[in-house]
Structures are given as C-alpha cells and as structure tokens.
C-alpha cells in the first residue's frame, strides 16, 4: 500500500520522532525545516530506514514558502494522504503578556494558526479528489489549561480545536478526517531550550526547573517519547476512519482540565 505523509518542522524533536515512526511503517515522506543543514542530516538518518524520504527548506510563517512546499510535496509523492502540522516555538517564549510585543503576536499567529489554514487549503483539493485524507494538528495541553508564560502559543493555537471541529463536519463525506493532538512534555531540544530560558529568568538551575516544571507534574512518572508515544497515536488516527473532529490529550495525565 502506497502511503504518503508531509511532516512539518521535522528535523529535530517531535517532528523528527514522528517522521522516524512513519518511515519505519513504510510511508513515503516529506520533511521540512528552515535549516538546510538540518534537512540534509535528517535525510541521511531517515534514508537508512526508508529511502523514500525527501526534504525541503520551508518557513511556516511565509505563505509563498508553504505554496512551494505543497508543490514540492505533490511533485515528489504525487499524492498526499497525511499532513502532520508540527511547529517550533516563537523565539520570545516563554513570556508573559506584558513581555510580548505586537510583532510577537503577529509571528505567533502566522506560525500556529495561519500556517494550518494555508496548508489545509492547499492540500484539501487533492484529498477531496482521492476521497481520502488525514490532517492532524499538533498543539498543547496548555490550550485547555492556559499557562501565563506561554501566552503566545496558548492563545494562537487555541482556535485549532474549533477549526478541527468545523472541518471535520464539512469534509467527512470525502473520507477526510481532522484531529488535534494536545501534547504534554516530550524529551526534545526545543523543550530543553525553553526550560533553560525559564531557569535563567528565575535564577535557578536547569535541573531544578526541569524537575519542578516538567517531571514532577507528570503522573505517569516519565517524559514522553516523540517516536513511540506520538508516532503510535498518529498511526492509529491514520487508520481510524470514524475518529474525526476530536482533540486528544497526550500528556501523561499532566493537565487538570476536563
């Protein structure tokens, strides 16, 4: 069975873990990054698992770059079955509202929300034509339980839940499903960079803040693994034609929200 996927922001951390999981399952893949060096390094690693992997430099905040990405994807794969919208973090975070500028908000909304809208609009016609598609937006548990230091991400990503519900109702008749995964803490370079910045701001050690803000909050007693934990859920959603319009918490029991 020929299965294809586009995973954005996929040369490190969560995106790379997902790409690796899909490559092991035989998906033909497109990976992206804003760094050409990271793309080449990741392609070298993933092609040892599965040779059907290609990469392209892409900026999620730039609509023209997203158009180029979709054209490249369809050129290489011919079809696209699965979109995983993963993103990095705004450079300003962690930050409280008073620490942000209007320009920070513009960037954050482009990164989290407008990229999802643009890519979905570009890919839907082909998915409608083939009467199959899976679109999964990656978000965070903090959109259900907002954190003041993640104000940019929490506010900018929250509408993805509403978008998921609306699109699921409109396009279910075409065999296309939409779901959002609300992620908890995962062992990634991005997560560690954020904790390092928070530790410096609060004049604490990285180890102290990592324990207080990450490990101690997770009831299952461990941090998440992108490839194993997120990858397995995405594979389930790919095959789950009856599951759409949902948000799924994948956070080790961290959030108190219902």
Automatic annotation (TrEMBL):
Taxonomy, superkingdom: Archaea
Name assigned to this protein: 3-oxoacyl-ACP reductase
InterPro entries for the chain: NAD(P)-bd_dom_sf (IPR036291), SDR (IPR050259), SDR_fam (IPR002347)
Family: Belongs to the short-chain dehydrogenases/reductases (SDR) family.
One Pfam family, short name: adh_short_C2
Biological source species: Acidianus sulfidivorans JP7
SUPFAM superfamilies per record: NAD(P)-binding Rossmann-fold domains (SSF51735)
